[in-house]
């Protein structure tokens, strides 16, 4: 059985949450769900991604390829950061000047 969250953190009625992380107080969250098409402008963009934090509040509509590409780019960036931190005692940054 696949368990999905029942509640949309934005309380939207045109989207069913598939996965989310919500802060204890509900003031910040990251969520991905399937929308029913009411608000999307591109037919194949049936997935809604929402992010709300202290300084940002964003909603985007995406197709499956968009989701896969976003996840792949983020995972690759995390892999680069992790590897660089292993080699540089955890203090690596692409902005740091070479030693």
CA-based shape: elongated
- Poorly predicted residue ranges: none
Succession of helices and strands: EEEEH
Sheet with most strands: strand arrangement: 1-2-3-4
Query: If you compute it from the alpha carbons, what radius of gyration comes out, rounded to the nearest whole angstrom?
Result: 17 Å
* Helical run tally: 1
In short:
The chain contains 1 helix and 4 strands.
List the helices and strands and how they pair.
Layout: E1 15-22, E2 29-35, E3 47-52, E4 57-62, H1 64-87
Antiparallel strand pairs: 1-2, 2-3, 3-4
What do you see in this structure?
The protein is of the alpha+beta class and 99 residues long. It has one domain. 24% of the residues lie in helices and 27% in strands. It is built from 1 helix and 4 strands; from the N terminus they run ββββα. The chain has a 4-stranded antiparallel β-sheet with strand order 1-2-3-4.
Primary descriptors:
1 helix, 4-stranded antiparallel β-sheet, 99 residues, 27% strand, elongated, alpha+beta
């Amino acid at each position: 059985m696949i368990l999905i969250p029942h509640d949309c953190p934005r309380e939207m009625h045109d989207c069913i949450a598939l996965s989310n992380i919500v802060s204890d107080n509900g003031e910040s969250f990251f969520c991905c769900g399937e929308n029913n098409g009411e608000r999307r402008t591109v037919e194949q963009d049936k997935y809604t991604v929402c992010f709300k934090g202290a300084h940002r509040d964003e909603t985007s509509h995406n197709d499956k390829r968009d989701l896969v590409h976003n996840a792949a780019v983020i995972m690759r960036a995390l892999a680069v950061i992790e590897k660089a931190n292993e080699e540089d005692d955890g203090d690596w940054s692409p902005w740091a000047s070479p030693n």
